[in-house]
Design a protein that fits this description.
Shape: elongated
Number of strands: 0
Number of helices: 2
Largest sheet: none
Length: 65
């Protein structure tokens, strides 16, 4: 099975996380609650990206066997 789809997914997650960071850096959060929410989104996207990268690594190492 190809890992290209998962690598694409990881890149898209990274883009989404970057968009959220730019939103915060630009002062987009109207209050602390929104700031906290966006920080949570960033944290979740970071976790999701790491899960995808771990899966790709496992798939690549199983292909070597």
């Amino acid at each position: 099975m190809s890992t290209q789809a998962f690598e694409y997914l990881a890149k898209e997650i990274d883009k989404l996380r970057g968009d959220q960071a730019v939103f915060l850096m630009g002062g987009g959060a109207k209050d602390f609650a929104e700031y906290r929410h966006v920080c949570g989104v960033i944290r979740g996207l970071t976790h999701a990206e790491q899960l995808v990268k771990d899966l790709v690594q496992k798939m690549e190492s199983s292909d070597d066997d």
